[in-house]
Amino acid sequence: MHTAPAGPAPATRTEPTHRTSPAGVAAMVGSGMSNQIGAATGSLAFPVLGPVGVVAVRQYVAATVLLAVGRPALRSFTWRQWRPVLLLAVVFGTMNLSLYTAIDRVGLGLAVTLEFLGPLAIALSATRRRVDALCALMAAAGVVTLMRPQPSTDYVGMGFGLLGAVCWASYILLNRTVGSRIPGAQGSAAAALLSAVMFLPVGLYVVLRHPPTAASLGYAVAAGVLASAVPYLVDLFTLRHVPAAAFGLFMSVNPVLAALVGWIGLGQGLGWIEGAAIGAVVGANVLSILTSRS
User: Where is region (Disordered) located (predicted)?
Assistant: First the structure.
């Protein structure tokens, strides 16, 4: 999966031999927008539920969808299979909680950009080309610019964004392990279920401490559907109709989509310096993908 990662993505896929279809492009656009609009919608419930409460609801929605799709045979899992699934469940929950806490503190655009450093680091670490060193420098320059000292700088919020990046990178690596040990989407579905179970006490505490309003609960459920269910199901289609390089290239645009949705939907405007910094991070990934060797 991609930014502000929704539910766990399928761990394995086959590279399509055909070119990107118009339907595949439309699906990627829809998935990206759904993901960011879902995150923005979830933030509307923060005043009542807080980021923790919203993430709890999102985990429940993700687990429901993934269980229906993956249908994991839990009783047949061996301990060798359960180990990475347990780690993936912890990472999945921590990743979403970090992202939503960062969104609450620094805004959607900056939070998603910082989290995007996770998959970018994975991509750049896989090669030793000079162009990738340049890409790493571009991304680093963007991050330093975003985190430059200012009176209004929220380093805690940015720290949560960077924690989300670490979690997303871990998520990618764990998904590979899970995919190699458990067929299909069963491992991802099991991880989503465990993550939802872990958040049950959190959800109960939030309900008892801050009884949700109908509106806040609706926003949280909508976030789960738009940022978990829709992207996951759409990506199942997209990865069968879009080459992996094109898919990765479009995912690079997610920080831009997040900044756009944050500006239009939440009134979270960014200055030209922040915009240029986000552009540097996005550009680093785009350059790495466009110059990669097949």
Answer: 1-23
Q: Read off the pLDDT of residues 117-152 as tens digits, 9 standing for 90 and up.
A: 887 787 777 666 777 778 778 878 887 777 776 767
* CA separation for the pair 126, 56 (Å, rounded): 34
Check whether 208 has a pLDDT greater than 90: no
CA triple 14-15-16, angle to 5 deg: 110
Give the residue among 103, 89, 50, 23 at the shortest CA–CA distance from 216.
50
Q: What is the DSSP string of the chain?
A: --SS--SPPPS--PPPSSPPPHHHHHHHHHHHHHHHHHHHHHHTTHHHHHHHHHHHHHHHHHHHHHHHHH---GGG--HHHHHHHHHHHHHHHHHHHHHHHHHHHH-HHHHHHHHTHHHHHHHHHT---HHHHHHHHHHHHHHHHHT---TT--HHHHHHHHHHHHHHHHHHHHHHHHHHHS-TTHHHHHHHHHHHHHTHHHHHHHHHHSPPPHHHHHHHHHHHIIIIIHHHHHHHHHTTTS-HHHHHHHHTTHHHHHHHHHHHHH-----HHHHHHHHHHHHHHHHHHHT---
